[in-house]
Amino acid sequence: MTLHGRRARLRDLRARLKGPSWVGGLGLAAGIAGLCVPVLTGLAASKALAGGAVALVVLLGLHVAFIAESPVRRAGAWWIVAVQAWLTYLPLTVFGAAWTPVCGLLAGAVLVMAARIRSVVLVLLALACGPVVLAAPDRTMIDPLWALAAPLTGLAEYAVITLTSRARRLGEARTEVMRRAVAMERRRFTRDLHDLVGHRLTVLVLKVQLLERLVAEGDEKARIEVSETLELLRNLSADVRAVAHGLRSSSLAAELGSARSLLESARVRCQIRVSCRDLPGDVEEALTHALREGVTNVLRHAEARQCSVHLLERDHMVRLTIRNDGVRPPRRPGDAGQGLLNLADRVSALGGWLEATSSRTGQFTFSVYVPRKK
User: Fold this and answer.
1) pTM score > 0.85 for this model?
2) Residue 334 pLDDT more than 50?
3) What residues does 272 pair with on adjacent strands?
Protein backbone atom coordinates (compact mmCIF):
# COMPACT_ATOMS: atom_id res chain seq x y z
CA MET A 1 0.00 0.00 0.00
CA THR A 2 1.28 3.45 -0.87
CA LEU A 3 1.93 6.18 1.68
CA HIS A 4 -1.08 8.13 0.40
CA GLY A 5 -3.31 5.06 0.84
CA ARG A 6 -2.09 4.49 4.40
CA ARG A 7 -2.75 8.11 5.28
CA ALA A 8 -6.26 7.90 3.80
CA ARG A 9 -7.02 4.78 5.85
CA LEU A 10 -5.66 6.46 8.98
CA ARG A 11 -7.89 9.51 8.42
CA ASP A 12 -10.89 7.24 7.90
CA LEU A 13 -10.10 5.35 11.13
CA ARG A 14 -9.80 8.59 13.08
CA ALA A 15 -13.12 9.81 11.70
CA ARG A 16 -14.79 6.58 12.78
CA LEU A 17 -13.27 6.73 16.25
CA LYS A 18 -14.63 10.25 16.64
CA GLY A 19 -18.04 9.26 15.27
CA PRO A 20 -21.21 8.91 17.32
CA SER A 21 -21.45 5.14 16.71
CA TRP A 22 -18.28 4.47 18.66
CA VAL A 23 -19.29 6.74 21.51
CA GLY A 24 -22.70 5.11 21.75
CA GLY A 25 -21.15 1.65 21.46
CA LEU A 26 -18.76 2.36 24.32
CA GLY A 27 -21.61 3.66 26.46
CA LEU A 28 -23.73 0.62 25.67
CA ALA A 29 -20.85 -1.74 26.41
CA ALA A 30 -20.23 -0.01 29.73
CA GLY A 31 -23.91 -0.36 30.66
CA ILE A 32 -24.01 -4.06 29.77
CA ALA A 33 -20.77 -4.67 31.67
CA GLY A 34 -22.22 -2.88 34.69
CA LEU A 35 -25.29 -5.08 34.51
CA CYS A 36 -23.17 -8.23 34.34
CA VAL A 37 -21.34 -7.44 37.58
CA PRO A 38 -24.25 -8.17 39.95
CA VAL A 39 -25.17 -11.24 37.88
CA LEU A 40 -21.69 -12.74 38.14
CA THR A 41 -21.44 -11.77 41.80
CA GLY A 42 -24.71 -13.54 42.57
CA LEU A 43 -23.70 -16.60 40.56
CA ALA A 44 -20.41 -16.82 42.44
CA ALA A 45 -22.26 -16.63 45.76
CA SER A 46 -24.59 -19.44 44.71
CA LYS A 47 -21.66 -21.55 43.47
CA ALA A 48 -23.06 -21.65 39.90
CA LEU A 49 -20.51 -19.36 38.30
CA ALA A 50 -19.31 -21.73 35.59
CA GLY A 51 -22.67 -22.67 34.12
CA GLY A 52 -24.10 -19.20 34.66
CA ALA A 53 -21.15 -17.53 32.91
CA VAL A 54 -21.62 -19.75 29.85
CA ALA A 55 -25.34 -18.96 29.70
CA LEU A 56 -24.60 -15.26 30.18
CA VAL A 57 -22.07 -15.22 27.33
CA VAL A 58 -24.58 -16.86 24.99
CA LEU A 59 -27.29 -14.43 26.05
CA LEU A 60 -25.05 -11.40 25.59
CA GLY A 61 -23.96 -12.63 22.16
CA LEU A 62 -27.56 -12.90 20.98
CA HIS A 63 -28.46 -9.56 22.53
CA VAL A 64 -25.57 -7.68 20.90
CA ALA A 65 -26.25 -9.38 17.54
CA PHE A 66 -29.84 -8.19 17.69
CA ILE A 67 -29.30 -4.56 18.68
CA ALA A 68 -26.46 -4.22 16.16
CA GLU A 69 -28.79 -4.99 13.24
CA SER A 70 -29.94 -2.30 10.80
CA PRO A 71 -33.10 -0.60 12.12
CA VAL A 72 -35.45 -2.20 9.60
CA ARG A 73 -38.15 -4.83 9.80
CA ARG A 74 -36.42 -8.21 9.55
CA ALA A 75 -38.00 -11.63 10.09
CA GLY A 76 -34.72 -13.06 11.40
CA ALA A 77 -34.78 -10.75 14.42
CA TRP A 78 -37.86 -12.39 15.92
CA TRP A 79 -36.18 -15.71 16.67
CA ILE A 80 -33.28 -13.89 18.35
CA VAL A 81 -35.69 -12.13 20.70
CA ALA A 82 -37.53 -15.41 21.31
CA VAL A 83 -34.31 -17.24 22.21
CA GLN A 84 -33.25 -14.32 24.41
CA ALA A 85 -36.58 -14.50 26.25
CA TRP A 86 -36.07 -18.23 26.77
CA LEU A 87 -32.54 -17.63 28.12
CA THR A 88 -33.91 -14.91 30.40
CA TYR A 89 -36.72 -16.74 32.16
CA LEU A 90 -35.76 -20.43 32.09
CA PRO A 91 -32.40 -20.00 33.89
CA LEU A 92 -34.24 -18.32 36.78
CA THR A 93 -35.25 -21.81 37.92
CA VAL A 94 -31.59 -22.81 37.99
CA PHE A 95 -29.62 -19.75 39.03
CA GLY A 96 -32.29 -18.05 41.12
CA ALA A 97 -32.33 -14.36 42.07
CA ALA A 98 -28.82 -13.77 40.69
CA TRP A 99 -30.26 -14.06 37.15
CA THR A 100 -32.98 -11.39 37.62
CA PRO A 101 -30.94 -8.37 36.27
CA VAL A 102 -30.85 -9.85 32.75
CA CYS A 103 -34.57 -9.05 32.47
CA GLY A 104 -33.45 -5.51 31.71
CA LEU A 105 -31.62 -6.72 28.59
CA LEU A 106 -34.78 -8.42 27.36
CA ALA A 107 -36.77 -5.24 28.00
CA GLY A 108 -34.29 -3.26 25.91
CA ALA A 109 -34.40 -5.77 23.04
CA VAL A 110 -38.21 -5.78 22.96
CA LEU A 111 -38.27 -1.95 22.96
CA VAL A 112 -35.89 -1.92 19.99
CA MET A 113 -38.13 -4.39 18.17
CA ALA A 114 -41.20 -2.29 19.04
CA ALA A 115 -39.53 0.78 17.51
CA ARG A 116 -38.59 -1.13 14.37
CA ILE A 117 -42.13 -2.33 13.67
CA ARG A 118 -43.90 0.52 15.53
CA SER A 119 -45.92 -1.66 17.87
CA VAL A 120 -47.54 -0.31 21.04
CA VAL A 121 -48.23 -3.86 22.24
CA LEU A 122 -44.52 -4.67 22.24
CA VAL A 123 -43.83 -1.52 24.25
CA LEU A 124 -46.22 -2.71 26.94
CA LEU A 125 -44.62 -6.18 26.87
CA ALA A 126 -41.17 -4.64 27.21
CA LEU A 127 -42.22 -2.67 30.28
CA ALA A 128 -43.60 -5.90 31.79
CA CYS A 129 -40.48 -8.01 31.16
CA GLY A 130 -39.20 -7.46 34.69
CA PRO A 131 -42.33 -7.04 36.83
CA VAL A 132 -43.88 -10.18 35.33
CA VAL A 133 -41.42 -12.39 37.23
CA LEU A 134 -42.83 -11.09 40.50
CA ALA A 135 -45.73 -13.46 39.90
CA ALA A 136 -43.42 -16.48 40.33
CA PRO A 137 -44.69 -18.88 43.02
CA ASP A 138 -41.25 -19.07 44.69
CA ARG A 139 -40.21 -15.55 45.72
CA THR A 140 -36.73 -16.71 46.74
CA MET A 141 -35.75 -17.17 43.09
CA ILE A 142 -36.55 -13.51 42.28
CA ASP A 143 -34.79 -10.27 43.20
CA PRO A 144 -37.71 -7.79 43.47
CA LEU A 145 -35.55 -4.67 43.12
CA TRP A 146 -33.93 -5.83 39.88
CA ALA A 147 -37.30 -7.04 38.58
CA LEU A 148 -38.82 -3.58 39.10
CA ALA A 149 -35.71 -1.88 37.69
CA ALA A 150 -35.78 -3.95 34.49
CA PRO A 151 -38.05 -1.48 32.55
CA LEU A 152 -35.74 1.40 33.49
CA THR A 153 -32.72 -0.59 32.35
CA GLY A 154 -34.42 -1.38 29.05
CA LEU A 155 -35.43 2.25 28.54
CA ALA A 156 -31.87 3.42 29.20
CA GLU A 157 -30.48 0.93 26.69
CA TYR A 158 -33.10 1.88 24.10
CA ALA A 159 -32.31 5.58 24.60
CA VAL A 160 -28.59 5.00 23.99
CA ILE A 161 -29.28 2.91 20.87
CA THR A 162 -31.78 5.44 19.49
CA LEU A 163 -29.59 8.48 20.11
CA THR A 164 -26.59 6.74 18.57
CA SER A 165 -28.61 5.79 15.49
CA ARG A 166 -29.96 9.31 15.06
CA ALA A 167 -26.53 10.84 15.53
CA ARG A 168 -25.14 8.48 12.88
CA ARG A 169 -27.92 9.41 10.44
CA LEU A 170 -27.33 13.10 11.08
CA GLY A 171 -23.62 12.61 10.46
CA GLU A 172 -24.31 10.80 7.21
CA ALA A 173 -26.76 13.53 6.17
CA ARG A 174 -24.18 16.22 6.94
CA THR A 175 -21.56 14.34 4.93
CA GLU A 176 -23.97 14.08 2.00
CA VAL A 177 -24.76 17.81 2.20
CA MET A 178 -21.05 18.62 2.20
CA ARG A 179 -20.47 16.30 -0.75
CA ARG A 180 -23.23 17.96 -2.73
CA ALA A 181 -21.93 21.42 -1.83
CA VAL A 182 -18.47 20.47 -3.07
CA ALA A 183 -19.95 19.05 -6.28
CA MET A 184 -21.99 22.21 -6.86
CA GLU A 185 -18.96 24.42 -6.22
CA ARG A 186 -16.87 22.32 -8.60
CA ARG A 187 -19.59 22.63 -11.23
CA ARG A 188 -19.82 26.39 -10.68
CA PHE A 189 -16.07 26.73 -11.02
CA THR A 190 -16.04 24.67 -14.24
CA ARG A 191 -18.96 26.61 -15.69
CA ASP A 192 -17.49 30.03 -14.84
CA LEU A 193 -14.09 28.98 -16.12
CA HIS A 194 -15.61 28.03 -19.46
CA ASP A 195 -17.96 30.99 -19.75
CA LEU A 196 -15.47 33.67 -18.71
CA VAL A 197 -11.99 32.43 -19.49
CA GLY A 198 -13.05 30.31 -22.48
CA HIS A 199 -14.74 33.28 -24.09
CA ARG A 200 -11.71 35.51 -23.58
CA LEU A 201 -9.37 32.88 -25.00
CA THR A 202 -11.54 32.46 -28.08
CA VAL A 203 -11.60 36.20 -28.65
CA LEU A 204 -7.86 36.40 -28.05
CA VAL A 205 -7.17 33.75 -30.70
CA LEU A 206 -9.31 35.61 -33.20
CA LYS A 207 -7.56 38.86 -32.38
CA VAL A 208 -4.14 37.33 -32.90
CA GLN A 209 -5.25 35.87 -36.22
CA LEU A 210 -6.57 39.27 -37.29
CA LEU A 211 -3.38 40.95 -36.12
CA GLU A 212 -1.29 38.51 -38.11
CA ARG A 213 -3.29 39.28 -41.24
CA LEU A 214 -3.06 43.05 -40.72
CA VAL A 215 0.68 42.91 -40.19
CA ALA A 216 1.08 40.86 -43.35
CA GLU A 217 -1.00 43.41 -45.28
CA GLY A 218 0.82 46.36 -43.72
CA ASP A 219 -2.43 47.78 -42.40
CA GLU A 220 -2.17 50.72 -39.97
CA LYS A 221 -4.91 49.16 -37.82
CA ALA A 222 -2.33 46.68 -36.52
CA ARG A 223 -1.32 49.05 -33.71
CA ILE A 224 -4.95 49.41 -32.59
CA GLU A 225 -5.39 45.67 -32.64
CA VAL A 226 -2.25 45.24 -30.53
CA SER A 227 -3.72 47.57 -27.90
CA GLU A 228 -7.02 45.71 -27.93
CA THR A 229 -5.22 42.38 -27.65
CA LEU A 230 -3.30 43.63 -24.61
CA GLU A 231 -6.58 44.77 -23.08
CA LEU A 232 -8.03 41.33 -23.68
CA LEU A 233 -5.07 39.79 -21.88
CA ARG A 234 -5.65 42.07 -18.91
CA ASN A 235 -9.34 41.16 -18.88
CA LEU A 236 -8.43 37.49 -19.07
CA SER A 237 -6.18 37.83 -16.04
CA ALA A 238 -8.98 39.57 -14.14
CA ASP A 239 -11.44 36.85 -15.14
CA VAL A 240 -9.12 34.12 -13.87
CA ARG A 241 -8.89 35.88 -10.49
CA ALA A 242 -12.66 36.34 -10.41
CA VAL A 243 -13.28 32.64 -11.04
CA ALA A 244 -10.64 31.59 -8.50
CA HIS A 245 -12.19 33.76 -5.76
CA GLY A 246 -15.82 33.20 -6.73
CA LEU A 247 -16.32 36.85 -7.68
CA ARG A 248 -18.87 37.98 -10.27
CA SER A 249 -18.56 41.36 -11.85
CA SER A 250 -20.54 40.99 -15.07
CA SER A 251 -21.73 44.16 -16.80
CA LEU A 252 -24.21 43.82 -19.64
CA ALA A 253 -23.60 47.36 -20.90
CA ALA A 254 -19.84 46.81 -21.00
CA GLU A 255 -20.31 43.46 -22.71
CA LEU A 256 -22.52 45.07 -25.38
CA GLY A 257 -19.80 47.56 -26.17
CA SER A 258 -17.18 44.81 -26.21
CA ALA A 259 -19.35 42.72 -28.54
CA ARG A 260 -19.72 45.61 -31.00
CA SER A 261 -15.98 46.28 -30.98
CA LEU A 262 -15.11 42.64 -31.42
CA LEU A 263 -17.56 42.00 -34.26
CA GLU A 264 -16.54 45.12 -36.14
CA SER A 265 -12.85 44.28 -35.75
CA ALA A 266 -13.67 40.94 -37.38
CA ARG A 267 -15.32 42.90 -40.25
CA VAL A 268 -18.86 42.03 -39.19
CA ARG A 269 -21.37 44.88 -39.33
CA CYS A 270 -23.03 45.08 -35.95
CA GLN A 271 -26.37 46.63 -34.99
CA ILE A 272 -27.31 46.83 -31.31
CA ARG A 273 -30.68 47.93 -29.98
CA VAL A 274 -31.53 48.06 -26.29
CA SER A 275 -34.96 48.98 -24.95
CA CYS A 276 -34.73 47.93 -21.28
CA ARG A 277 -32.58 49.19 -18.46
CA ASP A 278 -31.97 48.54 -14.75
CA LEU A 279 -32.30 44.78 -14.93
CA PRO A 280 -31.99 42.67 -11.75
CA GLY A 281 -28.48 41.45 -11.02
CA ASP A 282 -29.12 37.76 -11.67
CA VAL A 283 -30.97 38.52 -14.91
CA GLU A 284 -28.20 40.84 -16.12
CA GLU A 285 -25.54 38.25 -15.31
CA ALA A 286 -27.36 35.51 -17.23
CA LEU A 287 -27.86 37.78 -20.24
CA THR A 288 -24.21 38.82 -20.12
CA HIS A 289 -23.11 35.19 -20.38
CA ALA A 290 -25.68 34.64 -23.12
CA LEU A 291 -24.28 37.57 -25.10
CA ARG A 292 -20.74 36.26 -24.74
CA GLU A 293 -21.75 32.80 -25.86
CA GLY A 294 -23.76 34.11 -28.78
CA VAL A 295 -21.00 36.39 -30.07
CA THR A 296 -18.42 33.64 -29.65
CA ASN A 297 -20.56 31.26 -31.70
CA VAL A 298 -20.99 33.87 -34.43
CA LEU A 299 -17.24 34.22 -34.76
CA ARG A 300 -16.40 30.55 -34.48
CA HIS A 301 -19.23 28.81 -36.31
CA ALA A 302 -20.24 31.26 -39.01
CA GLU A 303 -18.80 33.40 -41.78
CA ALA A 304 -20.95 36.33 -40.84
CA ARG A 305 -21.03 39.72 -42.53
CA GLN A 306 -23.92 41.17 -40.53
CA CYS A 307 -25.04 40.64 -36.94
CA SER A 308 -27.78 42.28 -34.89
CA VAL A 309 -28.22 42.22 -31.12
CA HIS A 310 -31.62 43.18 -29.69
CA LEU A 311 -32.40 43.42 -25.99
CA LEU A 312 -36.13 43.92 -25.48
CA GLU A 313 -38.68 43.59 -22.68
CA ARG A 314 -42.39 42.87 -22.92
CA ASP A 315 -44.83 41.75 -20.20
CA HIS A 316 -42.01 41.32 -17.68
CA MET A 317 -40.15 39.01 -20.05
CA VAL A 318 -36.66 40.07 -21.17
CA ARG A 319 -35.50 38.74 -24.53
CA LEU A 320 -31.99 38.83 -25.94
CA THR A 321 -31.84 38.03 -29.66
CA ILE A 322 -28.67 37.60 -31.70
CA ARG A 323 -29.20 37.21 -35.45
CA ASN A 324 -26.43 36.71 -38.02
CA ASP A 325 -25.89 35.49 -41.56
CA GLY A 326 -23.23 33.25 -43.06
CA VAL A 327 -24.32 30.09 -41.26
CA ARG A 328 -22.07 27.09 -41.92
CA PRO A 329 -23.39 23.53 -42.34
CA PRO A 330 -24.75 22.28 -39.01
CA ARG A 331 -22.74 19.99 -36.82
CA ARG A 332 -23.91 16.57 -35.71
CA PRO A 333 -27.45 16.59 -34.28
CA GLY A 334 -27.53 17.01 -30.53
CA ASP A 335 -23.88 18.06 -30.43
CA ALA A 336 -24.38 21.02 -28.12
CA GLY A 337 -21.30 22.76 -26.84
CA GLN A 338 -20.46 23.05 -23.17
CA GLY A 339 -21.14 26.76 -23.34
CA LEU A 340 -24.76 26.26 -24.40
CA LEU A 341 -25.24 23.62 -21.70
CA ASN A 342 -23.87 26.00 -19.05
CA LEU A 343 -26.04 28.79 -20.38
CA ALA A 344 -29.13 26.59 -20.32
CA ASP A 345 -28.45 25.85 -16.64
CA ARG A 346 -28.11 29.52 -15.80
CA VAL A 347 -31.26 30.54 -17.66
CA SER A 348 -33.45 27.66 -16.49
CA ALA A 349 -32.53 28.48 -12.88
CA LEU A 350 -34.25 31.85 -13.44
CA GLY A 351 -37.30 30.33 -15.13
CA GLY A 352 -36.15 31.14 -18.68
CA TRP A 353 -35.28 29.19 -21.80
CA LEU A 354 -33.25 29.25 -25.01
CA GLU A 355 -34.35 29.17 -28.63
CA ALA A 356 -32.28 28.72 -31.80
CA THR A 357 -33.54 28.71 -35.37
CA SER A 358 -31.92 28.84 -38.80
CA SER A 359 -33.37 29.68 -42.20
CA ARG A 360 -32.61 28.44 -45.68
CA THR A 361 -31.10 31.81 -46.55
CA GLY A 362 -28.29 31.26 -44.05
CA GLN A 363 -29.78 33.35 -41.24
CA PHE A 364 -29.32 32.09 -37.69
CA THR A 365 -31.31 33.44 -34.73
CA PHE A 366 -30.34 32.77 -31.13
CA SER A 367 -32.76 34.00 -28.44
CA VAL A 368 -32.71 33.93 -24.66
CA TYR A 369 -35.85 34.54 -22.61
CA VAL A 370 -35.58 35.45 -18.93
CA PRO A 371 -38.48 36.69 -16.77
CA ARG A 372 -37.91 39.87 -14.85
CA LYS A 373 -38.75 39.44 -11.18
CA LYS A 374 -41.49 41.81 -10.04
Assistant:
1) no
2) no
3) 309
